[in-house]
Amino acid sequence: MEKWKTSISKSDDKETLVRGYELLDLVGNLSFSEAVCLLLKGELPKENESKMLDAIFVACIEHGINPPSITSARASVSAGNPVNAALAAGMLGFGEFHGGAIEQSAKMMQENVDRNPADVVKRFKEQGKRIPGYGHAVYKDEDPRTAKLFSLAEEYGVAGKYVEFAHGIKDAIDSVLGKTLCINIDGAIAALISEMVFDWRIGKGLFAIPRSVGMLAHIHEEMVNEKPYRRITDDQIEYTGPAKKQFKRQ
Fold first, then answer.
1. Which residues contact 75 (CB under 8 A, 6 or more apart)?
2. Lowest mean pLDDT across 147-151, 179-183, 197-201
3. Which of 86, 94, 138, 166 is a Cys-bridge partner for 77, taking CB atoms 3.0 to 4.6 Å apart?
4. Could you tell me what percent of the chain has a pLDDT over 90?
């Protein structure tokens, strides 16, 4: 019979090994971000990489009640679902335009970092594709979270060719497309996780880890402070269908 294979962990009645380390040796000695790095990359991070991950997690942890993931989570618990179901509903609120751009931006960077940014932008233009990680509905000139993360990356010695490439793409968007788009937080995180050699495929997950904490805070607030069954009010709805008709069978 074919076995399920894993290099991540091993657990029995004698010990639990995580990437080869005894779990109890890690408890009290590793921070959460260090443990995340160990699990996802299979190695302990350098000190400054751990600080960078901490900064990324805090930058992503909360961004208001407005995003689809948060409203989905709050609506779910309002309907009487348990916390885990509301968290799942919130997670399903992530998509291409909310939380998903980190993944695609990191893919674009990791596949093209050694190419001329202008050529990359021209190719996206020819294919009619949007360049992930650039532009924001609220922040036009600069995403302040990006500025903060890049500043810390310089301080921690994490900024390298991917951060440089991210800025190169921004400049190329200006010159090739004639648009001024900021590097949004998704693009910043994409560059930084690429610097730390994380696979682009886990980009959405790295966003979901901290945002789930913000989601839990919203779920709890909804449970404690609001009446059950949250619904859209009539003044928030605009009917755009046909006028009332008299039914007559043909």
1. 89, 230
2. 179-183
3. 86
4. 88
Give one word for 42, left, alpha or beta, with left for phi > 0 and alpha for psi -120 to 50.
left
**pLDDT > 80? residue 137:** no
| Residue 98 exposed, middle or buried by CB count within 10 Å (0-12, 13-18, 19+) | middle
pLDDT tens per residue across span 43-102: 999 889 999 999 999 999 999 999 999 999 999 999 999 999 999 999 999 988 888 899
Identify the residue whose tokens are 């970092």. 113
Domains in the chain, ordered, with CATH? Answer: 101-200 (1.10.230.10)
Task: Please name which of 89, 56, 102 lies closest in space to residue 204, comparing C-alpha atoms.
Answer: 102
Query: CA-CA distance, 102 to 91, in Å (whole number)?
Result: 15
Confidence grade of residue 187 (pLDDT, cut at 50, 70, 90): very high
Q: Which long-range contacts (CB under 8 A, 24 or more apart) does 160-166 make?
A: 160/195, 161/113, 161/195, 162/109, 162/113, 162/190, 162/191, 162/192, 162/194, 162/195, 163/191, 163/192, 163/195, 165/109, 165/112, 165/113, 165/117, 165/191, 166/109, 166/133, 166/190, 166/191
